[in-house]
Amino acid sequence: MARTRLYRGGRLEAEDFPLDDISEHLKDPGTVIWLDLTDPDRADYDRVQEEFGLHRLAIEDASSPRERPKLSHYAKHVFFNAYAIDFDAAAGDLDVHEVSAFATERALITAHAADFDIDAVVERWDATAELAGHGVAYLAHGLLDVVVDGQFDAVQELDEALEALEDRLFDESPQAIRQVQQRSFRLRKSLGRMRKVVLPMRELVNGLTRAREHLVDDVMLPYYHDLYDHVLRVTEFTESLRDFTATILESNLAVQGNRQNSIMKKVTSWAAIIAVPTAVTGYYGQNLPFPGYEKHYGFLTSAVLIVLLSVGLYVTFKRKDWL
C-alpha cells in the first residue's frame, strides 16, 4: 500500500496520486512530495530507489527489521530510523513500531509496518499546515514530533505503573508478593527496551538539525530545537526511571528480608515454647525416683510447670515483638 501527497507553494494540492506521476510532479521546482509505503517488499524498495536515487545502504537499513534508531547522510539524501512506542499498563509490556524515512531535497519517503499509526502523522501535518511552505523539514518535523510525543506518553505511563507497584511492596499476602515480583521484572524489561529506542533520539534530532544538507531552514529551526528539548525530557525521564526501578527492586529485597527475619523469629519463639513441655515431660518420664514419683501431686507439679513456663515465654516473646 502506498500513500502520496503533493505540496506546491505551501499548499496541499493532491493526494493519493499514482506513483508513476511522481517524476512528472518533481519536474516543477516548487513541489514537495510525500510518499508512504506500508509493509513494502523488495520490489517497492527497488522502485523507490530508482525513482529518487536512494543509496543502496539506506535501502538495506530500511528493509532490515529492528534496525537501531540512527541518522545517516548520503550524497543525495539523509536516512533516519525511529521507533514509536506504546505501553500496555495492564500487562506491563512495551510495543515498538519502527518507521524509516528518506529525506531528499524535495521529497520525504516513509516506510513502516502496518502497526505504525501514520494517520496520526498526517493529522499533525494538517494541524500545522501554516508551516507547509518549508517543505521536507516541515514533513520530517511532523513525523518525529508524533514519535517523540508517543514516547513521552509511554514513559509517563510506565512511571505511573512503577509508582503503583511501589505502593504494593508492603502487602504481605502471598499472592501480592508473587505479583509484585513478577510485575517488577516485567516493568524492568520494558524499561530496558524503552531505553534502547529513546536514548539514540538525541543524536538523531540533533544531527538532522545540523545536517550539512541544510534541510532545516531558519524558520523551522526553533521547532526542531523545541523537538530536541522534548527528546531531552524523554531521555532524562527514562534515565530517572532506571534509578527508580533499581530502588524498587532493592526495596522489595529488603522487605522480603525483613519479612523472612520476622518469620524466623516467630518460628524460633514457638519452638522455644514447645521445648518447655518437652523438657518437663522428659524430666518426669525418667525411670528414677524424684520428688512426686508415682504420686498424684507429681503430675500436678509437672502440669503447672508446663503451663507457667509456656505462658511466661509467650508473654516475654510477645513483649519483644517476636510473636
UniProtKB/TrEMBL annotation:
The chain crosses the membrane at residues 267-285, 297-317. The keyword Glycosyltransferase does not apply. Pfam families: CorA (PF01544). Keywords: Cell membrane, Membrane, Transmembrane, Transmembrane helix, Transport. Coiled coil: none annotated. It is a multi-pass membrane protein. It comes from the Bacteria. InterPro entries: CorA_cytoplasmic_dom (IPR045861), CorA_TM1_TM2 (IPR045863), MgTranspt_CorA/ZnTranspt_ZntB (IPR002523). Gene3D superfamilies: CorA soluble domain-like, Magnesium transport protein CorA, transmembrane region. It is found in: Cell membrane. Belongs to the CorA metal ion transporter (MIT) (TC 1.A.35) family. PANTHER family: CORA FAMILY METAL ION TRANSPORTER (EUROFUNG). This is Magnesium transporter CorA family protein. The lineage of its organism: Bacteria, Bacillati, Actinomycetota, Actinomycetes, Micromonosporales.
